Amino acid sequence: MDKIKPNVIGLDLGGTNAVFGIVDSRGNIIATTAIKTQAYPKVEDFVEAGCAALEPVIEMAGGIGSIQGMGIGAPNGCYYTGTIEDAANLAWKGSVPLAKMFSEKLGIPVSLTNDANAAAMGEMTYGVAKGMRNFIMITLGTGVGSGIVINGQVVYGCDGFAGELGHVIMDRTPNGRICGCGRKGCLEAYCSATGVARSARELLETTNRPSLLRDMKPEDITSLDVAIAAGKGDALAKEVFDFTGKMLGEACADFAAFSSPEAFVFFGGLTKAGDLIMKPIEEAYNKTVLPIFKGKAKLLVSTLDGAGAAVLGASALGWEA
Amino acid sequence: MDKIKPNVIGLDLGGTNAVFGIVDSRGNIIATTAIKTQAYPKVEDFVEAGCAALEPVIEMAGGIGSIQGMGIGAPNGCYYTGTIEDAANLAWKGSVPLAKMFSEKLGIPVSLTNDANAAAMGEMTYGVAKGMRNFIMITLGTGVGSGIVINGQVVYGCDGFAGELGHVIMDRTPNGRICGCGRKGCLEAYCSATGVARSARELLETTNRPSLLRDMKPEDITSLDVAIAAGKGDALAKEVFDFTGKMLGEACADFAAFSSPEAFVFFGGLTKAGDLIMKPIEEAYNKTVLPIFKGKAKLLVSTLDGAGAAVLGASALGWEA
Predict the structure, then answer these.
(1) Half-sphere exposure at residue B68, Cβ-oriented, CA atoms within 13 angstroms
(2) pTM for the whole structure
(3) Which of A156, A182, A260 sits opposite B162 (nearest CB)?
(4) Which of A135, A181, A247, A258 to mutate to test the interface with B (most CBs of B within 10 A)?
(5) Which of the residues A206, A301, A315, B193 has an alpha carbon 20 to 30 A from that of B298?
(6) What is the pLDDT, as a whole number, of residue B321?
(7) What average pLDDT does chain B have?
(8) pLDDT tens-digit profile of B84-106?
(9) pLDDT at A7
(10) In what order do the strands lie in the sheet with A263-267?
(11) Which of B163, B167, B257 minimises the CB distance to A168?
(12) How many angstroms separate the CA of residue A166 from the nearest CA in chain B?
């Protein structure tokens, strides 16, 4: 067996930016570079530009011979095929074999998965889930994503797309909120950053209660504004976080019935609200989880959260590419 | 490595009966014996009596030297510890190390898990899920149980108790039905055999609609009665199965978002109703599953269903004990 090389490449592919990083085995990002995803309507040009941008950073890190592999975290990424399938926020349509394209160009093995699965890999390799064999990563961003780890492996399912916990149905009544997926009542419709802003707008519209948020145009309110108002003691804003956390806690109670994880790891913008979101999650979870699972799973916030987390997560795939 | 021996023992441990079977590698039950679980308030006496009953059958099958191992399917069985934990329908309280007790007595390796996980093992070893690496077994009996297989392994979670899909919450409104677990709105409260009978009673009580079931005392109605009435074209009884199937289909759509299985395998008394239950499951599943999973998972009925299925399922554990 070949000696494991000291570094991997991680690519966090977003709709706007594509951030590349060279990462060592301890999870230090030793160099980064980025290109604009949107600037390349043709994926061939994107790969060309990405490799050109990578060249000097790879040299700096000890040359391509020092790179074990590359991992890509991408929207609608399929681990089994290494393809991106019709991602809504990318210009490249159909099935895009991005892993193969980078692999051929760089001459190293490349793995690809969706961003939430990459985050779970990152957490397991470098973060709070290090050493855990069963945990569930919940990413709270523009959407709600998830990466599920069972017996030390990310769950990809029969098709490579398992782990879409943002789309379990939390409200089956006719009042269920419309979700971006076209269905009603999904967890994501309530507990994403956009869901939180929407909950605030709904409370402002349907009540006359005072709130700092009334100083803003409703359409301008973001989840960050709600968090800031709640931080200042705004009762209405606090209620929005209580509602969001309660729903997340109840959802996690259902997830526990599935895989009885050692921990839930929360990641993403909303976790910045700290206790405002984590306390109601914990309360609702402990109150509603099946008695047999009570007190077993830890509710943790990612310690990788920050600018480099997505690159780190993607890079973790490079070790087993 | 030792040569694999030709047979295994399966024990289906129920509250009333304990059925032992000797099973060969093709899934033929070559001999069975049974004792009354309830007759042994002390577990030591139960193990003693079980081994005494097994002795002649083991001899008939070629002696203990022909037995690779033993598998036990038991309520509240924990795979990791081989113990039964406070099973409501057994007289033995606390943590009962049943696997260890049988192993010491018989001198062979013994594994233990809950009945639904054993059913999943049986399906994967001998049944419709043979060769599948990702599927979810749903057992529809007095309760609703589940056994989840991911990457070819039964999911046990951090504690050995994963896969309690009968206890995901399907109705979060204040009207959610009380479940045996003490919570409200669980899948099991609606889709178990008792849940089906309860749905029928509720429809009879809250409407004046005609039904063959009105000829019975409400408290005597069982799920079998509802199935027979529906089979005769009784509209109210049919509606009960439509309601039950719809809820199961919607629940499975959520489960698909978790592990994207190749198939759902339904097992147990209610599946005897055939299309009456399977059609509405399929309709609701196809209607509500996230678009990315549409058309991927098969909805199957166990082919092992029948008297020996539980013994076969338990025995499957014996091969890897």
Answers:
(1) 20
(2) 0.94
(3) A260
(4) A258
(5) B193
(6) 78
(7) 95
(8) 998 888 999 999 999 999 999 99
(9) 96
(10) A153-154, A144-150, A135-140, A263-267, A298-301
(11) B257
(12) 8
Name the helix (H) or strand (E) containing B222.
none
Find the angle CA(B121)-CA(B127)-CA(B129) to the nearest 5 degrees. Answer: 70
Residue A167 in 3-state DSSP? helix
CA proximity to B101, closest of B112, B90, B86: B112
Tell me which chain B residues have a C-beta less than 8 angstroms from the C-beta of A261.
Answer: 157-158
- Asked if pLDDT for residue B1 goes beyond 60, the answer is no
Largest interatomic CA distance in chain B:
69
Rounded Cα gap, residues A21 and B154, in angstroms: 37
pLDDT value of residue B4: 84
Q: Does B257 touch chain A (CB under 8 A)?
A: yes
Using the Cβ of B134 and the Cβ atoms of chain A, whether some distance falls under 8 Å is answered with yes
Distance from A119 to chain B by nearest Cα, in Å? 16
Give residues 275 to 314 of A whose Cβ lies within 8 Å of B: 288, 290-293, 296-297
| Record: contact A288-B250, CB cut-off 8 A | no
Map residue A144 onto helix, strand or coil. strand
The pLDDT tens digits for B169-181 are 999 999 999 999 9
How are beta strands B263-267 and B135-140 bridged, if at all? parallel
Interface touch B250/A162, C-beta < 8 Å: no
Alpha carbon of A264: minimum distance to chain B alpha carbons (Å)? 12
In this prediction, residue A209 has a pLDDT band, given cuts at 50, 70 and 90, of very high
Which residues of chain B make contact with A152, given a CB cutoff of 8 A? none
Inter-residue contact A287 to A294 (CB < 8 Å): no
At A305 the pLDDT is 65
